[in-house]
């Protein structure tokens, strides 16, 4: 691979090549697509690439594009092939005079690709929570563990008002369905079924597990990173080792127990070693 720190700068983004990854930094200018501005930068491991192409672009440009492996990037998995070229985060547009340089980088990337098959886990980090955006019929928020929908009286359907504001733990979900200019729907681990056992199809505007877009609500640069963050958390849930939750003690209770321990120590009922050991154990519970 090229020397660590080598940079290939194009329109709206620059790729910095490392020994095991490519750091993609997006510009924040007014002409830069809003999705790129929202992403800021992304580090993509070389193991996440399935292929690289270089092709002629418009008006004296060339386009270097990396193809991520299926399942390696939660953003692209959530997008499900629906992104327009202008929003493609793996697409770098360069002046035509840099074609030879771009071809060299493309060849070096291709030489480092070992596996082009689907990835068994996400290799690219999802956008970080907390995230929130306004849809047409409600506000969606995600704190890293729970998705919440709060309905707007001006846009939500009667079905959603009757259901009330919704809260979904990522442990209850199997995935996310995102449709640009359409909706974001949370997919439960146990889909609803009709009496005959077939999946129940509910329109997004009637589904309490979905928020709808339109009239400037739910733009790509807000709703897609949100969907990717939720999808990343859902996938992590299936591979994460459950952590033991240790309840926090009331500081006032700890202080009272230490005071009582001190009285026993002064009375000679607790040795110096026992006092120090028990006090340290109590403080560790804070």
Automatic annotation (TrEMBL):
Question: Cross-referenced InterPro entries, in alphabetical order?
Answer: DUF4429
Q: Which Pfam families match?
A: DUF4429 (PF14472)
What superkingdom heads the lineage? Bacteria
Native source species: Streptomyces flavalbus
Give start and end of each DUF4429 domain. Answer: 15-109, 140-230
Q: Know the name of this protein?
A: DUF4429 domain-containing protein
